[in-house]
């Protein structure tokens, strides 16, 4: 049996931009991607702590060290700059493997979106 479990999580980052006139996705600082074991084009779930919105999109690599968290395209309608969000990805794995799997979880500074 396979189950879906949390693989990666960036817990509480602040949205820096919302760009409605872009094709779609979320742009994330490359430092955060590396720390959370996330890659460009990976599907992610977004939870907006400010308004309760939950949605899915995919990752675009942002400039390393910039602190950028930008929702693009239609997702830009679900956030405002300054909102605090959680970014999560999931993986399918065998039930026994899932019992011992440890997800990559990072807790950036919400004022700068930098790793602490």
Break the fold down into its secondary structure elements and pairings.
Elements: E1 2-14, E2 17-19, E3 25-29, H1 30-35, E4 43-48, E5 54-62, E6 69-72, E7 84-94, H2 95-100, E8 104-106
Parallel strand pairs: 1-8, 2-6, 3-5
Antiparallel strand pairs: 1-7, 3-6, 4-5, 4-7
Assign a percent range to the helix content: 10-25%
Find the structural class using helix and strand composition. Answer: mainly beta
Query: Which runs of at least 5 residues are low in confidence (pLDDT < 50)?
Result: none
Separate helix tally: 2
Strand content: over 45%
* Order of secondary-structure elements: EEEHEEEEHE
For the sheet with most strands, the description reads: 8 strands, mixed
Structural summary, described in words:
With 116 residues, the protein is mainly beta. The protein contains two helices and eight strands. The protein has helices at residues 30-35, 95-100; strands at residues 2-14, 17-19, 25-29, 43-48, 54-62, 69-72, 84-94, 104-106. An eight-stranded mixed sheet has the order 2-6-3-5-4-7-1-8. The protein is globular, with a radius of gyration of 14 Å. It starts with a strand and ends in a 10-residue tail after the last strand.
């Amino acid at each position: 049996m396979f189950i879906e479990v949390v693989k990666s999580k960036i817990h509480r980052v602040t949205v820096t931009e919302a760009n409605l006139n872009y094709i779609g996705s979320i742009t994330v600082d490359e430092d955060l991607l590396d720390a959370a074991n996330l890659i460009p084009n990976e599907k992610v779930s977004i939870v907006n702590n400010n308004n309760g919105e939950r949605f899915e999109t995919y990752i675009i690599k942002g400039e390393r060290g910039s602190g950028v968290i930008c929702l693009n395209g239609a997702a830009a309608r679900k956030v405002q700059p300054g909102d605090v969000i959680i970014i999560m990805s999931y993986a399918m794995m065998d039930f026994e493997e899932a019992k011992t799997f440890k997800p990559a979880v990072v807790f950036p500074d919400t004022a700068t979106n930098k790793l602490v």
